[in-house]
Amino acid sequence: MIAEVAEGRASAEVARSLINDMSMRQNYWSLGAFCATYCRVVTMHHTIEDLSLFTSLKLRDAELGPVVDRLAEEHEVVADVLNRIDLALVAMVTDPDGLSAVKAEVDLLAEVLFSHLAYEEEELLAPITRLGIDI
């Protein structure tokens, strides 16, 4: 592009526009990479809870069943929001105005996760300690 501007085949405005587009693509790619990593960590965390921690809690204290069941159901809600974030990120690649959809889904994820984690801590910290369950 610089060579084209130097040779008079393109204007500085066109070069600036192209650089801006490239910067936005890089930003979108970086956002997507961060989200993918974060989503992977949340999914791993929930999978470990579902397959190990929740099973141990139910076996050692049956009264925790409703709490564990609710948390497992919330994991499905979180997974659904994570999938919608992924779809919104993919759509944003071809539609830069799609950033507002990504933001809305990320805001929803924050709301869902804060609520989920607050409930989990409130209901499980004492039983995990009482039962001596290693995490």
Attribute tags:
87% helix, 4 helices, mainly alpha, rod-shaped, 0% strand, 135 residues
The outline comes out as rod-shaped
Oligomerization state of this entry?
A: single chain
Q: Helix- and strand-based class? A: mainly alpha
Number of strands: 0
Average the pLDDT over all residues and give the rounded result: 86
Number of domains: 1
Portion in strands: under 5%
Q: Biggest sheet, open or closed, and with what strands and sense? A: none
The run of helices and strands is HHHH
End-to-end CA span: 55 Å
Provide the helix percentage. over 70%
Count up the helices.
4
Are there runs of 5+ residues with pLDDT below 50, and where?
Answer: none
Global Rg: 23 Å
Description of the molecule:
The model has no long low-confidence stretch (mean pLDDT 86). It is rod-shaped and about 75 Å long. The chain is an all-alpha fold. The N and C termini lie far apart (55 Å). Helix 2 packs antiparallel against helix 3 and helix 3 packs antiparallel against helix 4. The chain has one domain. The chain has four helices and no strands. 87% of the residues lie in helices and 0% in strands.
